[in-house]
């Protein structure tokens, strides 16, 4: 798949060189995050964020004269349904966002056709590389990927959607998680090992059986086995052991130290704080307000906004962007609203702010025919619109109305 996709760039960067900056730094990215993924706390946290972020929907829109038009088309279908022949949109974005969280960098290759087909987009592929480095030639940037099995591919940076986290030290790539996160993970691992060893300690030496006479190894081993069988066997209900003058038994009472639940929770909370979430988000017990807070602080800026900007710049030409073409990512935040909030949205329907089918989608109900048309109550009108003309009242039968003076 990658050979077919990257192959058309062979030989295009023969005269390229590594990008260098005034400080002499050469931007090279080497992911480290796979080791942190082995931690159950990190994996649960990354999974919770990625599976929620992967539900965002891509939309191809066009902004013209302050109005937004839904364009749709192949690009939207690729990004929201099936980016490539091997992945649906949810699996695609889940993998991309997982790499972003673990490695602070994620790369998406835009597969374009040749000039005979107008460079049309044929799909999108996540790049799972072990190293990436920036190259420059003829005032154009390229990025070289080294794959897991040794293959090396070089593509124009303009055809790569590059997402980053902790973008500070490196001029091109986001900083990794190893330095800030590994000490906490080592503490969690040491705690888990301590619990395991404490459990195993019950099977270790329970005491010392000291013989007062010299015995050969075989007799000493037999005497020890007989003592264990007779007195240390769980079937010995009496709980009393007896020895003669030939041996003395000194019991050992191991007292392993284990971390308490509050301390363990504090350590795990450091991992949650690092990724910007909490325990309720991990186990799905969050409220409507808590979900909105995490969406606005984590999912929207890290994934939706960044991916929208980067995809718009890399997918569309300058001329297409000038004419208002844009990729936006949306999430149906109302799905996490309480039943009371959902029911209150009916006031948005009869005022034309939501269509009936949009309201039904909030309740996970199927659309109905004609439900995509906005409706509005008869006692409302658009701003600056002339009010409806009054219908003249019909005089009541049985006589003429009196004039203002009361004369008939």
Automatic annotation (TrEMBL):
Biased composition (Basic and acidic residues): 370-379
Disordered: region residues: 370-408
Identification of the protein by name: Phage portal protein
Source organism of the structure: Paenibacillus aurantiacus
């Amino acid at each position: 798949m990658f050979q077919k996709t990257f192959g058309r760039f062979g030989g295009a960067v023969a005269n390229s060189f590594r990008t260098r900056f005034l400080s002499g730094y050469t931007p090279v990215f080497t992911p480290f995050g796979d080791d942190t993924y082995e931690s159950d706390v990190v994996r649960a946290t990354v999974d919770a964020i990625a599976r929620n972020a992967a539900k965002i929907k891509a939309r191809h829109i066009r902004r013209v004269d302050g109005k937004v038009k839904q364009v749709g088309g192949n690009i939207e279908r690729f990004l929201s349904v099936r980016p490539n022949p091997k992945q649906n949109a949810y699996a695609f974005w889940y993998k991309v966002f997982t790499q972003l969280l673990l490695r602070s960098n994620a790369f998406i290759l835009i597969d374009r056709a040749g000039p005979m087909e107008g460079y049309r987009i044929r799909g999108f592929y996540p790049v799972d590389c072990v190293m990436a480095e920036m190259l420059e030639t003829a005032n154009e940037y390229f990025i070289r990927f080294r794959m897991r099995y040794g293959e090396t591919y070089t593509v124009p940076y303009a055809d790569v959607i590059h997402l980053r986290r902790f973008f500070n030290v490196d001029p091109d790539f986001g900083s990794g998680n190893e330095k800030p996160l590994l000490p906490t993970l080592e503490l969690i691992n040491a705690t888990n090992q301590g619990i395991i060893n404490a459990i195993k300690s019950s099977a270790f030496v329970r005491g010392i059986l000291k013989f007062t006479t010299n015995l050969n190894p075989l007799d000493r081993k037999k005497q020890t086995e007989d003592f264990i069988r007779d007195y240390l066997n769980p079937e010995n209900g009496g709980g009393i052991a007896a020895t003669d003058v030939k041996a003395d038994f000194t019991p050992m009472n191991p007292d392993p130290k284990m971390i308490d639940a509050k301390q363990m929770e504090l350590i795990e909370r450091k991992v949650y704080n690092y990724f910007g979430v909490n325990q309720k988000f991990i186990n799905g017990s969050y409220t409507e307000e808590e979900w909105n807070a995490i969406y606005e602080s984590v999912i929207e800026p890290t994934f939706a906004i960044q991916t929208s900007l980067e995809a718009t710049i890399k997918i569309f030409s300058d001329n297409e962007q000038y004419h208002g073409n844009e990729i936006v990512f949306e999430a149906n935040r109302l799905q996490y609203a309480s039943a009371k909030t959902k029911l209150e949205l009916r006031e948005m329907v009869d005022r034309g702010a939501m269509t009936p089918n949009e309201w039904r989608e909030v309740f996970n109900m199927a659309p109905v025919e004609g439900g995509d048309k906005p409706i509005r109550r008869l006692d409302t009108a658009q701003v600056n619109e002339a009010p409806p003309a009054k219908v003249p009242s019909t005089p009541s039968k049985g006589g003429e109305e009196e004039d203002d003076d009361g004369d008939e």
